[in-house]
Protein backbone atom coordinates (compact mmCIF):
# COMPACT_ATOMS: atom_id res chain seq x y z
CA UNK A 1 0.00 0.00 0.00
CA UNK A 2 1.16 3.50 -0.74
CA UNK A 3 0.17 5.38 2.39
CA UNK A 4 -0.69 4.19 5.90
CA UNK A 5 -3.13 1.38 6.66
CA UNK A 6 -5.52 4.06 7.85
CA UNK A 7 -5.26 5.84 4.53
CA UNK A 8 -6.11 2.64 2.70
CA UNK A 9 -9.28 2.41 4.76
CA UNK A 10 -10.26 5.84 3.53
CA UNK A 11 -9.31 5.08 -0.04
CA UNK A 12 -11.44 1.94 -0.07
CA UNK A 13 -14.41 3.94 1.11
CA UNK A 14 -13.87 6.64 -1.50
CA UNK A 15 -13.64 4.16 -4.34
CA UNK A 16 -17.01 2.63 -3.54
CA UNK A 17 -19.01 5.83 -3.86
CA UNK A 18 -21.01 6.56 -7.03
CA UNK A 19 -19.35 8.97 -9.40
CA UNK A 20 -16.00 9.08 -7.63
CA UNK A 21 -13.97 6.52 -9.55
CA UNK A 22 -12.49 9.14 -11.85
CA UNK A 23 -11.41 11.09 -8.79
CA UNK A 24 -10.28 8.17 -6.68
CA UNK A 25 -7.70 9.26 -4.21
CA UNK A 26 -5.59 6.19 -4.84
CA UNK A 27 -5.48 7.23 -8.49
CA UNK A 28 -2.96 9.78 -7.31
CA UNK A 29 -0.37 7.13 -6.63
CA UNK A 30 3.33 7.76 -6.18
CA UNK A 31 4.01 7.95 -9.93
CA UNK A 32 1.59 10.83 -10.54
CA UNK A 33 3.00 12.54 -7.47
CA UNK A 34 6.60 12.27 -8.63
CA UNK A 35 5.80 13.22 -12.25
CA UNK A 36 4.04 16.30 -10.87
CA UNK A 37 6.79 17.25 -8.45
CA UNK A 38 9.58 17.03 -11.01
CA UNK A 39 7.61 18.97 -13.60
CA UNK A 40 7.06 15.95 -15.80
CA UNK A 41 10.55 16.13 -17.26
CA UNK A 42 12.81 13.14 -17.73
CA UNK A 43 15.75 13.32 -15.37
CA UNK A 44 19.20 13.66 -16.84
CA UNK A 45 21.02 10.43 -17.51
CA UNK A 46 24.19 12.12 -16.42
CA UNK A 47 23.23 13.16 -12.92
CA UNK A 48 21.85 11.70 -9.75
CA UNK A 49 19.07 13.12 -7.64
CA UNK A 50 19.96 14.42 -4.21
CA UNK A 51 16.93 13.64 -2.10
CA UNK A 52 17.48 14.81 1.50
CA UNK A 53 14.39 12.91 2.58
CA UNK A 54 16.24 9.68 1.91
CA UNK A 55 19.83 10.22 3.00
CA UNK A 56 21.51 13.14 4.71
CA UNK A 57 24.24 15.26 3.14
CA UNK A 58 27.04 13.17 4.63
CA UNK A 59 25.57 9.95 3.24
CA UNK A 60 25.03 11.54 -0.16
CA UNK A 61 28.69 12.54 -0.19
CA UNK A 62 29.83 9.06 0.88
CA UNK A 63 32.69 7.70 -1.22
CA UNK A 64 31.79 4.08 -0.49
CA UNK A 65 28.61 2.15 0.21
CA UNK A 66 30.03 1.12 3.56
CA UNK A 67 28.72 4.38 5.02
CA UNK A 68 25.20 3.51 3.89
CA UNK A 69 24.96 -0.26 4.37
CA UNK A 70 27.61 -1.20 6.88
CA UNK A 71 30.96 -2.93 6.48
CA UNK A 72 29.65 -6.26 5.20
CA UNK A 73 26.76 -7.84 3.32
CA UNK A 74 25.47 -11.38 2.89
CA UNK A 75 25.85 -13.59 -0.17
CA UNK A 76 24.36 -17.03 -0.80
CA UNK A 77 27.18 -19.60 -0.66
CA UNK A 78 25.10 -22.78 -0.99
CA UNK A 79 21.45 -22.35 -2.04
CA UNK A 80 20.58 -26.01 -1.46
CA UNK A 81 21.60 -25.77 2.18
CA UNK A 82 20.66 -22.14 2.70
CA UNK A 83 24.23 -21.27 3.65
CA UNK A 84 25.34 -17.63 3.41
CA UNK A 85 28.67 -15.90 3.74
CA UNK A 86 29.76 -12.35 4.44
CA UNK A 87 31.37 -10.17 1.78
CA UNK A 88 33.04 -6.81 2.22
CA UNK A 89 30.60 -4.06 1.17
CA UNK A 90 33.08 -1.82 -0.61
CA UNK A 91 34.63 -4.59 -2.67
CA UNK A 92 31.28 -6.13 -3.62
CA UNK A 93 29.74 -2.86 -4.77
CA UNK A 94 32.70 -0.89 -6.10
CA UNK A 95 31.92 0.81 -9.41
CA UNK A 96 28.36 -0.50 -9.49
CA UNK A 97 24.88 0.95 -9.49
CA UNK A 98 23.04 -0.43 -6.49
CA UNK A 99 19.34 -1.26 -6.26
CA UNK A 100 18.16 -1.35 -2.65
CA UNK A 101 15.31 -3.85 -2.86
CA UNK A 102 12.76 -3.47 -0.06
CA UNK A 103 10.08 -6.12 0.24
CA UNK A 104 8.25 -8.36 2.67
CA UNK A 105 7.49 -12.03 2.16
CA UNK A 106 3.93 -11.38 3.29
CA UNK A 107 3.55 -8.95 0.36
CA UNK A 108 5.19 -11.40 -2.04
CA UNK A 109 2.79 -14.14 -1.01
CA UNK A 110 -0.18 -11.81 -1.48
CA UNK A 111 0.97 -10.84 -4.97
CA UNK A 112 1.51 -14.45 -6.00
CA UNK A 113 -1.83 -15.46 -4.48
CA UNK A 114 -3.73 -12.66 -6.25
CA UNK A 115 -2.26 -13.74 -9.56
CA UNK A 116 -3.30 -17.36 -9.06
CA UNK A 117 -6.78 -16.64 -7.70
CA UNK A 118 -7.79 -13.89 -10.11
CA UNK A 119 -5.73 -14.83 -13.13
CA UNK A 120 -4.60 -11.22 -13.46
CA UNK A 121 -1.02 -11.06 -14.79
CA UNK A 122 -0.60 -7.57 -13.33
CA UNK A 123 -0.08 -9.27 -9.96
CA UNK A 124 3.38 -10.84 -10.05
CA UNK A 125 5.74 -11.49 -7.16
CA UNK A 126 8.36 -8.76 -7.29
CA UNK A 127 11.17 -11.30 -6.92
CA UNK A 128 10.25 -12.67 -10.39
CA UNK A 129 10.43 -9.17 -11.89
CA UNK A 130 13.69 -8.36 -10.13
CA UNK A 131 15.36 -11.62 -11.19
CA UNK A 132 14.40 -11.01 -14.80
CA UNK A 133 15.81 -7.47 -14.78
CA UNK A 134 18.92 -8.53 -12.86
CA UNK A 135 19.72 -11.37 -15.27
CA UNK A 136 19.15 -9.04 -18.23
CA UNK A 137 21.61 -6.51 -16.77
CA UNK A 138 24.19 -9.21 -16.04
CA UNK A 139 24.02 -10.56 -19.60
CA UNK A 140 24.37 -7.03 -21.00
CA UNK A 141 27.42 -6.40 -18.82
CA UNK A 142 25.73 -3.54 -16.99
CA UNK A 143 27.28 -2.67 -13.62
CA UNK A 144 24.28 -3.46 -11.41
CA UNK A 145 24.06 -5.08 -8.00
CA UNK A 146 20.89 -5.63 -5.99
CA UNK A 147 20.88 -5.49 -2.20
CA UNK A 148 17.91 -7.13 -0.50
CA UNK A 149 16.45 -5.26 2.49
CA UNK A 150 13.80 -7.43 4.21
CA UNK A 151 10.94 -5.51 5.80
CA UNK A 152 9.28 -6.81 8.98
CA UNK A 153 9.93 -10.46 8.22
CA UNK A 154 10.85 -13.13 10.75
CA UNK A 155 14.44 -14.37 10.45
CA UNK A 156 13.29 -17.78 9.17
CA UNK A 157 11.24 -16.21 6.35
CA UNK A 158 14.09 -13.91 5.39
CA UNK A 159 16.55 -16.80 5.18
CA UNK A 160 14.12 -18.92 3.18
CA UNK A 161 13.50 -16.12 0.68
CA UNK A 162 17.14 -15.05 0.36
CA UNK A 163 18.48 -18.52 -0.50
CA UNK A 164 16.83 -18.23 -3.92
CA UNK A 165 18.15 -14.73 -4.63
CA UNK A 166 21.21 -14.26 -6.87
CA UNK A 167 22.20 -10.95 -5.28
CA UNK A 168 23.33 -9.61 -1.91
CA UNK A 169 21.47 -8.78 1.30
CA UNK A 170 21.94 -6.62 4.34
CA UNK A 171 22.15 -8.54 7.58
CA UNK A 172 18.57 -8.96 8.82
CA UNK A 173 19.72 -8.77 12.42
CA UNK A 174 21.71 -5.63 11.76
CA UNK A 175 20.41 -2.17 12.70
CA UNK A 176 21.46 -1.14 9.19
CA UNK A 177 18.34 -2.76 7.76
CA UNK A 178 16.03 -0.84 10.09
CA UNK A 179 17.97 2.35 9.44
CA UNK A 180 17.68 1.96 5.65
CA UNK A 181 13.93 1.36 5.87
CA UNK A 182 13.51 4.49 7.99
CA UNK A 183 15.77 6.70 5.90
CA UNK A 184 14.22 5.55 2.64
CA UNK A 185 10.78 6.39 3.99
CA UNK A 186 9.46 3.14 2.57
CA UNK A 187 5.66 3.27 2.53
CA UNK A 188 4.91 0.97 -0.42
CA UNK A 189 6.15 -2.53 -1.02
CA UNK A 190 7.91 -3.65 -3.06
CA UNK A 191 10.20 -0.61 -3.35
CA UNK A 192 13.54 -0.17 -5.06
CA UNK A 193 15.86 2.78 -4.49
CA UNK A 194 18.63 2.99 -7.08
CA UNK A 195 21.96 4.58 -6.19
CA UNK A 196 24.79 5.50 -8.54
CA UNK A 197 28.37 4.25 -7.91
CA UNK A 198 28.98 7.25 -5.64
CA UNK A 199 26.01 6.39 -3.42
CA UNK A 200 23.76 9.17 -4.69
CA UNK A 201 20.13 8.58 -5.54
CA UNK A 202 19.10 8.02 -9.15
CA UNK A 203 15.48 7.25 -8.32
CA UNK A 204 13.23 6.18 -5.49
CA UNK A 205 10.79 4.79 -8.08
CA UNK A 206 13.20 2.07 -9.11
CA UNK A 207 10.78 -0.85 -8.99
CA UNK A 208 8.28 0.86 -11.27
CA UNK A 209 11.00 1.92 -13.69
CA UNK A 210 12.61 -1.52 -13.76
CA UNK A 211 9.32 -3.39 -14.15
CA UNK A 212 8.03 -1.34 -17.08
CA UNK A 213 11.30 -0.29 -18.72
CA UNK A 214 13.74 -3.14 -17.99
CA UNK A 215 16.01 -2.05 -20.83
CA UNK A 216 16.52 1.48 -19.50
CA UNK A 217 19.48 0.92 -17.13
CA UNK A 218 20.15 2.75 -14.79
CA UNK A 219 16.47 3.73 -14.72
CA UNK A 220 16.40 7.49 -14.41
CA UNK A 221 12.84 8.73 -13.93
CA UNK A 222 10.89 9.32 -17.11
CA UNK A 223 8.86 12.45 -17.63
CA UNK A 224 5.22 12.35 -18.61
CA UNK A 225 5.94 12.94 -22.32
CA UNK A 226 8.27 9.95 -22.42
CA UNK A 227 5.62 7.78 -20.78
CA UNK A 228 3.15 8.67 -23.52
CA UNK A 229 5.44 7.42 -26.26
CA UNK A 230 6.94 8.88 -29.44
CA UNK A 231 3.85 9.01 -31.63
CA UNK A 232 0.13 9.85 -31.59
CA UNK A 233 -2.62 9.48 -34.15
CA UNK A 234 -5.71 11.41 -35.18
CA UNK A 235 -9.08 9.92 -36.02
CA UNK A 236 -8.27 10.13 -39.74
CA UNK A 237 -5.15 8.02 -39.22
CA UNK A 238 -2.56 10.77 -39.59
CA UNK A 239 0.41 10.60 -37.23
CA UNK A 240 1.95 13.39 -35.14
CA UNK A 241 4.86 13.54 -32.72
CA UNK A 242 5.24 14.90 -29.19
CA UNK A 243 5.58 18.43 -30.58
CA UNK A 244 1.78 18.47 -30.93
CA UNK A 245 1.59 18.70 -27.14
CA UNK A 246 4.18 21.41 -26.59
CA UNK A 247 3.07 24.52 -24.71
CA UNK A 248 -0.44 23.19 -24.10
CA UNK A 249 -2.53 22.10 -21.16
CA UNK A 250 -2.72 18.33 -21.47
CA UNK A 251 -5.69 16.09 -20.77
CA UNK A 252 -5.23 12.33 -20.53
CA UNK A 253 -8.55 10.67 -21.24
CA UNK A 254 -8.85 7.04 -20.12
CA UNK A 255 -11.92 5.51 -21.70
CA UNK A 256 -13.23 2.57 -23.74
CA UNK A 257 -15.88 1.69 -26.27
CA UNK A 258 -17.41 -0.97 -23.98
CA UNK A 259 -17.79 1.47 -21.05
CA UNK A 260 -21.30 2.96 -20.83
CA UNK A 261 -20.36 5.87 -18.51
CA UNK A 262 -17.55 6.70 -20.94
CA UNK A 263 -19.97 7.02 -23.85
CA UNK A 264 -22.09 9.36 -21.75
CA UNK A 265 -19.11 11.55 -20.84
CA UNK A 266 -17.33 11.69 -24.22
CA UNK A 267 -19.87 14.10 -25.81
CA UNK A 268 -19.50 16.44 -22.81
CA UNK A 269 -15.73 16.37 -23.15
CA UNK A 270 -15.98 16.98 -26.91
CA UNK A 271 -18.23 19.99 -26.33
CA UNK A 272 -15.78 21.34 -23.76
CA UNK A 273 -12.73 20.73 -25.97
CA UNK A 274 -14.31 22.63 -28.84
CA UNK A 275 -15.38 25.51 -26.56
CA UNK A 276 -11.88 25.87 -25.10
CA UNK A 277 -10.32 25.80 -28.58
CA UNK A 278 -12.83 28.36 -29.84
CA UNK A 279 -11.83 30.64 -26.97
CA UNK A 280 -8.24 30.57 -28.25
CA UNK A 281 -6.88 28.58 -25.31
CA UNK A 282 -4.23 25.91 -25.66
CA UNK A 283 -5.53 22.44 -24.82
CA UNK A 284 -4.75 19.01 -26.19
CA UNK A 285 -6.26 15.72 -25.11
CA UNK A 286 -4.77 12.26 -25.60
CA UNK A 287 -7.11 9.28 -25.65
CA UNK A 288 -5.68 6.25 -23.85
CA UNK A 289 -8.07 3.46 -24.62
CA UNK A 290 -8.86 0.25 -22.84
CA UNK A 291 -10.63 -1.11 -25.91
CA UNK A 292 -10.42 -4.88 -26.29
CA UNK A 293 -10.04 -4.89 -30.07
CA UNK A 294 -8.31 -2.47 -32.45
CA UNK A 295 -11.54 -2.16 -34.44
CA UNK A 296 -13.34 -1.02 -31.29
CA UNK A 297 -10.79 1.73 -30.65
CA UNK A 298 -10.92 2.84 -34.28
CA UNK A 299 -14.72 3.11 -34.21
CA UNK A 300 -14.95 4.83 -30.82
CA UNK A 301 -11.96 7.14 -31.31
CA UNK A 302 -13.42 8.11 -34.68
CA UNK A 303 -15.95 10.28 -32.79
CA UNK A 304 -13.20 12.27 -31.06
CA UNK A 305 -11.42 15.42 -32.31
CA UNK A 306 -8.20 14.97 -30.29
CA UNK A 307 -5.19 12.62 -30.33
CA UNK A 308 -4.75 9.00 -29.23
CA UNK A 309 -1.95 6.62 -28.34
CA UNK A 310 -2.01 4.04 -31.15
CA UNK A 311 -3.67 0.75 -30.29
CA UNK A 312 -0.51 -1.26 -30.89
CA UNK A 313 1.75 0.92 -28.72
CA UNK A 314 2.99 -0.59 -25.44
CA UNK A 315 2.48 2.84 -23.87
CA UNK A 316 -1.29 2.40 -24.14
CA UNK A 317 -1.11 -0.23 -21.38
CA UNK A 318 1.80 1.24 -19.42
CA UNK A 319 0.44 4.77 -18.85
CA UNK A 320 -2.75 3.85 -16.94
CA UNK A 321 -0.82 1.41 -14.78
CA UNK A 322 1.87 3.91 -13.88
CA UNK A 323 -0.65 6.67 -13.21
CA UNK A 324 -2.77 4.42 -11.02
CA UNK A 325 -5.96 4.69 -13.05
CA UNK A 326 -8.56 2.39 -11.49
CA UNK A 327 -11.85 3.37 -13.13
CA UNK A 328 -13.27 4.58 -16.42
CA UNK A 329 -13.80 7.25 -17.52
CA UNK A 330 -10.92 9.16 -15.97
CA UNK A 331 -9.63 12.56 -17.08
CA UNK A 332 -6.29 13.79 -15.72
CA UNK A 333 -5.35 17.41 -16.45
CA UNK A 334 -1.70 18.57 -16.51
CA UNK A 335 -0.35 22.07 -17.07
CA UNK A 336 2.06 23.13 -19.81
CA UNK A 337 4.98 21.86 -17.71
CA UNK A 338 3.25 18.51 -17.09
CA UNK A 339 2.46 19.25 -13.46
CA UNK A 340 -0.79 17.67 -12.37
CA UNK A 341 -3.63 20.19 -12.08
CA UNK A 342 -6.42 17.78 -11.22
CA UNK A 343 -7.36 14.12 -11.27
CA UNK A 344 -10.98 15.20 -11.07
CA UNK A 345 -11.30 16.35 -14.68
CA UNK A 346 -14.41 14.34 -15.41
CA UNK A 347 -16.38 16.00 -12.63
CA UNK A 348 -15.03 19.47 -13.44
CA UNK A 349 -15.92 19.18 -17.13
CA UNK A 350 -19.37 17.82 -16.33
CA UNK A 351 -20.15 20.65 -13.91
CA UNK A 352 -19.26 23.30 -16.48
CA UNK A 353 -21.46 21.68 -19.13
CA UNK A 354 -24.36 21.24 -16.73
CA UNK A 355 -24.27 24.96 -15.89
CA UNK A 356 -24.41 25.81 -19.59
CA UNK A 357 -20.82 27.10 -19.70
CA UNK A 358 -18.58 24.33 -21.08
CA UNK A 359 -14.93 25.02 -20.35
CA UNK A 360 -15.70 28.07 -18.21
CA UNK A 361 -13.34 27.00 -15.41
CA UNK A 362 -10.58 25.67 -17.69
CA UNK A 363 -7.98 24.43 -16.74
CA UNK A 364 -9.79 23.50 -13.55
CA UNK A 365 -7.24 24.35 -10.90
CA UNK A 366 -8.30 22.97 -7.51
CA UNK A 367 -10.21 25.50 -5.46
CA UNK A 368 -8.90 26.38 -2.00
CA UNK A 369 -12.36 25.65 -0.54
CA UNK A 370 -14.46 22.74 -1.79
CA UNK A 371 -17.03 20.20 -0.76
CA UNK A 372 -15.52 16.86 0.20
CA UNK A 373 -17.79 15.01 -2.23
CA UNK A 374 -16.59 17.21 -5.11
CA UNK A 375 -12.84 17.07 -4.46
CA UNK A 376 -11.88 13.95 -2.48
CA UNK A 377 -8.58 13.74 -4.36
CA UNK A 378 -7.39 16.82 -2.42
CA UNK A 379 -6.79 14.44 0.48
CA UNK A 380 -3.91 12.89 -1.48
CA UNK A 381 -2.23 16.20 -2.35
CA UNK A 382 -1.27 17.28 1.16
CA UNK A 383 -2.67 18.51 4.47
CA UNK A 384 -6.38 19.33 4.48
CA UNK A 385 -8.33 21.54 6.85
CA UNK A 386 -11.41 19.37 7.38
CA UNK A 387 -14.67 21.05 8.29
CA UNK A 388 -17.14 18.50 9.65
CA UNK A 389 -20.48 20.14 8.90
CA UNK A 390 -22.31 16.92 8.09
CA UNK A 391 -24.34 17.08 11.28
CA UNK A 392 -25.44 20.68 10.76
CA UNK A 393 -28.53 22.03 9.03
CA UNK A 394 -28.21 23.38 5.48
CA UNK A 395 -28.71 26.89 6.85
CA UNK A 396 -25.87 26.48 9.35
CA UNK A 397 -23.68 24.90 6.69
CA UNK A 398 -24.15 27.95 4.49
CA UNK A 399 -23.19 30.27 7.37
CA UNK A 400 -20.10 28.24 8.24
CA UNK A 401 -19.03 28.06 4.59
CA UNK A 402 -19.37 31.84 4.35
CA UNK A 403 -16.85 32.05 7.20
CA UNK A 404 -14.38 29.43 6.00
CA UNK A 405 -14.35 30.07 2.26
CA UNK A 406 -12.92 33.64 2.43
CA UNK A 407 -10.25 32.43 4.86
CA UNK A 408 -9.25 29.64 2.50
CA UNK A 409 -9.13 31.97 -0.49
CA UNK A 410 -7.13 34.63 1.37
CA UNK A 411 -4.59 32.07 2.52
CA UNK A 412 -4.25 30.55 -0.95
CA UNK A 413 -3.73 33.97 -2.53
CA UNK A 414 -1.11 34.88 0.09
CA UNK A 415 0.73 31.61 -0.45
CA UNK A 416 0.76 32.05 -4.24
CA UNK A 417 2.03 35.62 -3.92
CA UNK A 418 4.79 34.45 -1.59
CA UNK A 419 5.86 31.77 -4.05
CA UNK A 420 6.21 34.38 -6.78
CA UNK A 421 8.21 36.62 -4.47
CA UNK A 422 10.36 33.75 -3.19
CA UNK A 423 12.91 33.81 -0.40
CA UNK A 424 11.80 34.64 3.13
CA UNK A 425 8.30 35.49 1.92
CA UNK A 426 7.53 31.79 1.51
CA UNK A 427 8.50 31.08 5.11
CA UNK A 428 6.29 33.88 6.37
CA UNK A 429 3.25 32.95 4.25
CA UNK A 430 0.29 30.93 5.52
CA UNK A 431 0.93 27.21 5.15
CA UNK A 432 -0.67 25.55 2.14
CA UNK A 433 -3.75 23.45 2.80
CA UNK A 434 -7.03 22.85 0.99
CA UNK A 435 -10.23 23.39 2.98
CA UNK A 436 -12.73 20.55 2.55
CA UNK A 437 -16.25 20.70 3.94
CA UNK A 438 -18.07 17.47 4.76
CA UNK A 439 -21.71 18.38 4.21
CA UNK A 440 -23.32 14.97 3.71
CA UNK A 441 -23.60 12.00 6.04
CA UNK A 442 -22.12 9.36 3.74
CA UNK A 443 -19.47 6.66 3.65
CA UNK A 444 -16.60 8.99 2.79
CA UNK A 445 -17.27 11.50 5.56
CA UNK A 446 -17.93 8.63 7.99
CA UNK A 447 -14.55 7.10 7.21
CA UNK A 448 -12.71 10.38 7.73
CA UNK A 449 -14.55 10.77 11.04
CA UNK A 450 -13.27 7.34 12.08
CA UNK A 451 -9.71 8.19 11.11
CA UNK A 452 -10.02 11.49 12.95
CA UNK A 453 -11.28 9.93 16.15
CA UNK A 454 -14.73 11.49 15.83
CA UNK A 455 -17.96 9.63 16.38
CA UNK A 456 -19.70 8.37 13.25
CA UNK A 457 -23.07 10.13 13.00
CA UNK A 458 -26.46 9.25 11.54
CA UNK A 459 -29.08 11.45 9.91
CA UNK A 460 -31.77 10.61 12.45
CA UNK A 461 -29.60 12.03 15.23
CA UNK A 462 -30.51 15.55 14.09
CA UNK A 463 -33.74 15.10 16.03
CA UNK A 464 -32.17 13.60 19.18
CA UNK A 465 -31.09 15.90 22.02
CA UNK A 466 -28.80 13.20 23.39
CA UNK A 467 -26.73 13.35 20.18
CA UNK A 468 -26.42 17.12 20.05
CA UNK A 469 -22.73 17.11 20.97
CA UNK A 470 -21.86 14.47 18.34
CA UNK A 471 -23.68 16.48 15.67
CA UNK A 472 -22.03 19.83 16.37
CA UNK A 473 -19.72 21.19 13.64
CA UNK A 474 -16.09 20.25 14.25
CA UNK A 475 -12.84 20.90 12.42
CA UNK A 476 -9.20 19.90 12.28
CA UNK A 477 -6.19 19.09 10.13
CA UNK A 478 -6.02 15.76 8.29
CA UNK A 479 -2.90 14.49 6.49
CA UNK A 480 -3.51 11.26 4.59
CA UNK A 481 0.09 11.03 3.41
CA UNK A 482 1.44 11.20 6.97
CA UNK A 483 -1.43 9.19 8.45
CA UNK A 484 -1.92 11.87 11.10
CA UNK A 485 -4.52 14.34 12.31
CA UNK A 486 -5.03 17.25 14.72
CA UNK A 487 -8.70 17.65 15.59
CA UNK A 488 -9.85 20.64 17.61
CA UNK A 489 -12.15 20.09 20.58
CA UNK A 490 -13.82 23.41 19.79
CA UNK A 491 -17.07 23.85 17.91
CA UNK A 492 -16.50 25.32 14.45
CA UNK A 493 -16.70 29.11 14.68
CA UNK A 494 -14.76 31.90 12.98
CA UNK A 495 -12.74 32.68 16.11
CA UNK A 496 -11.91 29.04 16.81
CA UNK A 497 -10.92 28.37 13.21
CA UNK A 498 -8.63 31.41 13.02
CA UNK A 499 -6.91 30.43 16.27
CA UNK A 500 -6.41 26.89 14.97
CA UNK A 501 -4.93 28.15 11.69
CA UNK A 502 -2.53 30.38 13.61
CA UNK A 503 -1.26 27.30 15.43
CA UNK A 504 -0.98 25.46 12.12
CA UNK A 505 1.10 28.26 10.59
CA UNK A 506 3.33 28.37 13.66
CA UNK A 507 3.90 24.62 13.51
CA UNK A 508 2.40 24.29 16.97
CA UNK A 509 -0.31 21.71 16.26
CA UNK A 510 0.18 18.37 17.97
CA UNK A 511 -0.43 15.70 15.34
CA UNK A 512 -1.40 12.18 16.34
CA UNK A 513 -1.81 8.97 14.31
CA UNK A 514 -5.13 8.14 12.69
CA UNK A 515 -7.54 5.97 14.61
CA UNK A 516 -8.01 2.55 13.01
CA UNK A 517 -11.04 0.62 14.15
CA UNK A 518 -11.59 -3.09 13.62
CA UNK A 519 -13.98 -3.96 10.83
CA UNK A 520 -13.68 -0.54 9.22
CA UNK A 521 -15.15 0.60 5.93
CA UNK A 522 -14.45 -1.54 2.94
CA UNK A 523 -14.66 -0.64 -0.71
CA UNK A 524 -17.53 -2.15 -2.62
CA UNK A 525 -18.56 -2.58 -6.21
CA UNK A 526 -20.91 0.37 -6.31
CA UNK A 527 -20.66 3.39 -8.55
CA UNK A 528 -21.41 4.29 -12.11
CA UNK A 529 -17.89 3.82 -13.38
CA UNK A 530 -16.28 0.90 -15.18
CA UNK A 531 -13.47 -1.02 -13.52
CA UNK A 532 -10.28 -0.62 -15.53
CA UNK A 533 -9.41 -4.28 -15.04
CA UNK A 534 -8.27 -4.43 -18.64
CA UNK A 535 -5.23 -2.47 -17.50
CA UNK A 536 -4.18 -5.20 -15.07
UniProtKB/TrEMBL annotation:
Gene3D superfamilies: Glutaredoxin. Keywords: Signal. GO terms for cellular component: nucleus. Residues 1-23 form the signal peptide. Residues 525-536 have a biased composition (Acidic residues). Residues 517-536 are annotated as: Disordered. It comes from the Eukaryota. One of its GO terms (biological process) is negative regulation of Wnt signaling pathway. Residues 183-381 form the Thioredoxin domain. The keyword Signal applies. GO terms for molecular function: thioredoxin-disulfide reductase (NADPH) activity. This is Thioredoxin. It comes from Tribonema minus.
